[in-house]
């Protein structure tokens, strides 16, 4: 996905920050000074690098922006690049009513003045995106087939939330918990700790079911569960999955009482103990306890 440089004046920052977040959620790379320029770096040179590396130049138009010498300078640089290299598309983004500069009048603008979502939709079409619904923790499953969307980050965050909650629940109620490894990623098994009145089941984010939670009965190690065994629906959200698990634990305790015995806990991400991860983790730990940041 190409990069969009956002030119704006400081008074319009609240609008620009929202726009940058929404574009990032749609999978569009955004060059925005707040994200790109770090303390101590040259603002002039970093902006110049951003202009040079961005295929699209978005100028947020407002009366204050058109009076800003900095915005005028960025627009001039973008226009020169367009004329010299024919490699930069200028995108006017009309945020508040103002008189358009002569250079921009022949170019169709995205209109954000009265309807933000409409303006976002018009802008997204430039990048071939027909739906501008922003990806969130609630709807990430709808973006699994959307190119360049970061749905995998949301999937991982949701599973972390689920396992964290299950660890607290199983600790309070004395049940064992076992998360799957690379053989069965995004799966977790819950079981009673003793062989007497043994009970176990496993739930998994099933990619063939749109990453809904599916359950397999009678299993205590998720890595050994055949994929075909995940045949019972357990929920589409963390809360639904937790309700499913708690209902199972309630049924067990109603019949057999609170389980006894020493519970087993395995929630280590075994995939992260392979490859370069141990080395990077060691480096991070050593830097935390050493003034010399080049210790490794």
TrEMBL record:
Residues 1-158 form the TIR domain. SUPFAM superfamilies: Toll/Interleukin receptor TIR domain. It comes from the Bacteria. Pfam families: TIR_2. One of its GO terms (biological process) is signal transduction. InterPro entries: TIR_dom, Toll_tir_struct_dom_sf. Gene3D superfamilies: Toll/interleukin-1 receptor homology (TIR) domain. The keyword Lyase does not apply. Keywords: Receptor. SMART domains: TIR (SM00255). This is Toll/interleukin-1 receptor domain-containing protein. It comes from Gordonibacter massiliensis.
